[in-house]
Design a protein that fits this description.
This protein is mainly α and 275 residues long. It has one domain (2-272). It is 73% helix and 3% strand. It is built from ten helices and two strands; from the N terminus they run H-H-H-H-H-H-E-E-H-H-H-H. It has a two-stranded antiparallel sheet. Strand 1 (162-164) and strand 2 (168-172) form a beta hairpin. Helix 8 (209-236) runs antiparallel to helix 10 (259-272). It is globular and about 60 Å long.
Length: 275
């Protein structure tokens, strides 16, 4: 518990520093850093670190994805994706006695799908004005982290009924309910704060609370789904955490496993329903 709180005491201020530079390349750089470490953790977990050329290529591609919207890279996104796939196929040919095709598929998933999922935060920023984009981004993290915190404490004090004992023994139905309630309360609080800030600048904001409720419920449940997927991957690889970079939490993937799923879910929601 002390380690979790200490990590939070360091991480939360850093989070707000990054949000302060939300409309700048600093935000892209922060996502690149997260993805670089995250892809590396996933590769090490799956024991692909023995081939350094594969590791370096996968990490670099993951780091590059948050910058694909730059004018200099945007026209070449598809080309870069196919070049990356070609490198993986070349690795399969070179080390065909050691690497199987399903492992190449896993490498592609880890290096492309996960980074694209987190990069939807850039798409959210670029699809709206800065204020609204920032609000939606904070909502993403609220659905992931507020729900996680609420589930942790509700499960610890009230948890009796296991939700998925074979995948994640510590998760309970009571924890899930506590996480959903906490996430909803945070979403309402964030919306009220956003409205007040905009009103102080003489800008009237109307919140569609029905859409907010739907987006928050979707984000929270998808976040739980992402957390369980990460737990399955850890169990299949026989590890407890993806890393040790964040004491009390584990690795970058341990802390962002829900965000990888919540961000694209909220992005899709916003294509059909405004908040």
């Amino acid at each position: 518990m002390k380690q979790r709180l200490l990590t939070a005491a360091i991480g939360i201020p850093l989070f707000f520093v990054v949000l302060f530079f939300y409309a700048t390349p600093v935000f892209n750089g922060a996502l690149s850093l997260i993805l670089g470490i995250g892809v590396y953790e996933l590769l090490q977990t799956a024991q692909y670190g023995r081939k350094k050329v594969i590791t370096v290529t996968c990490v670099l591609f993951g780091v590059l994805l948050p910058w694909f919207e730059l004018p200099v890279l945007k026209p070449y996104r598809v080309i870069l994706l196919f070049l990356f796939a070609a490198v993986l196929m070349a690795a399969l040919l070179k080390w065909h006695d050691e690497i199987r095709m399903e492992q190449i598929s896993q490498l592609f998933f880890v290096s492309v799908v996960y980074p694209i999922a987190l990069t939807t935060l850039v798409y959210i920023r670029d699809s709206f004005d800065t204020a609204h984009g920032l609000f939606y981004t904070v909502l993403v993290f609220s659905c992931a982290w507020a729900a996680d915190a609420g589930a942790y404490f509700a499960g610890r004090f009230f948890g009796k009924h296991k939700m998925s004992p074979k995948i994640s023994p510590n998760k309970t139905i009571e924890g899930l309910i506590g996480g959903v309630i906490t996430s909803l309360l945070f979403a309402v609080a964030i919306s009220a704060a956003f409205s007040a800030i905009m009103a102080s600048q003489n800008v009237a904001v109307s919140i569609n609370y029905l859409s907010l409720l739907g987006a928050t419920l979707l984000g929270t449940m998808v976040g739980v789904f992402g957390d369980l997927v990460a737990s399955v991957m850890k169990r299949q690889n026989g590890i407890k955490d993806y890393g040790t970079i964040m004491p009390g939490h584990g690795g970058i993937v341990d802390r962002f496993d829900s965000v990888f799923f919540v961000a694209p879910a909220i992005f899709v929601w916003l294509q059909f329903f405004m908040i």
